[in-house]
Design brief:
Helix content is 47%, strand content 15%. The chain is of the alpha+beta class. It has two domains: 38 residues, no CATH class; 70 residues, Arc Repressor Mutant, subunit A. The longest helix is centred in the N-terminal third of the chain and has 18 residues.
């Protein structure tokens, strides 16, 4: 996916961040590039197919610069991680009620000035929290293991 604005961090499990650090000045741009590439279309297709086969065989191995840029973006845009660090305590044997932790999140989001569009819905919040903590039923209520109120 090519985008100029990165998607919601929780959806980044299959995306990598690429920074394009070179801009070719207008006067140096090849005005016949499209025609040159069209003339090489079959070779370009073969190169892409070879790359696809290598990817299927070996997996995607992004260079260190891409891994670092992706990790930096995830950390900078991880509202859930910020909320957890500021408003909860990770503790192996602890549990927190799902509704209670979402209520904490709503208060935190309000304090940060997040709009309704920026805030996670309860469903999305639960899904993303469930990626980090075990969700279980206790006393008729859903809760998350490994997390507690401060």
């Amino acid at each position: 996916m090519l985008c100029s604005v990165c998607p919601e961090p929780g959806s980044l499990t299959c995306l990598e961040t690429l920074h394009f650090t070179v801009t070719i000045p207008q006067e140096e741009q090849d005005k016949q590039l499209a025609e040159k590439l069209a003339a090489e279309a079959s070779g370009i297709l073969n190169w892409a197919l070879d790359g696809c086969q290598a990817w299927q065989r070996e997996g995607l191995r992004p260079p260190p610069e891409v891994r670092a840029a992706t990790e930096q973006y995830r950390e900078e845009e991880d509202d859930l991680g910020e909320f957890l660090a500021e408003c909860t305590v990770a503790e192996a044997d602890a549990t927190i009620d799902a509704a209670a932790v979402y209520q904490l999140y709503q208060g935190w989001a309000l304090g940060r000035g997040l709009t309704d569009k920026e805030k996670m819905t309860q469903t999305m919040f639960g899904r993303r929290l469930g990626e980090r903590f075990t969700r279980e039923k206790s006393g008729g209520h859903w809760c998350y293991r490994g997390l507690r109120k401060p």
